[in-house]
Amino acid sequence: ALHLSYVCAGGHDPAILDQLLHLHLEATAVEKGATGLHGGKRMAMPAEASSTGEQGLDAALLATELENQRLEDEILALKVRRERKANAASQVAQWHAEELAQLQAEVGMLRCHPEQIRPYLPSAILPSPLAPSL
């Protein structure tokens, strides 16, 4: 968990990664010792598990797994963002369609009832039918 959080936060210092690997190996040894108690004695770790070459492979494998996990998390976050954008766009399109339908209904009602439409200019503003001669 420490290694994962360090790498996910952008950590890449080889010395720290090596320390985290050693902590992981110690924790694994303690766990194996706790589950492998036999007559009050800890079972010894195989010699190959403590070799430098295998530790390097374990570190590389762990780093690769952590990078894969980070990339999977990033892909999931991108998918979630894309779905949110798609949902927002479809909601806006639906709202526009509803507004358009409402406006079309209002226009249709106005066309059916032209007597309800008020004249554009009040009669007081219109010139009198008999204009004075010039």
TrEMBL record:
<keyword id="KW-0175">Coiled coil</keyword>
<dbReference type="InterPro" id="IPR038800">
    <property type="entry name" value="CCDC17"/>
</dbReference>
<feature type="coiled-coil region">
    <location>
        <begin position="61"/>
        <end position="88"/>
    </location>
</feature>
<protein>
    <submittedName>
        <fullName>CCD17 protein</fullName>
    </submittedName>
</protein>
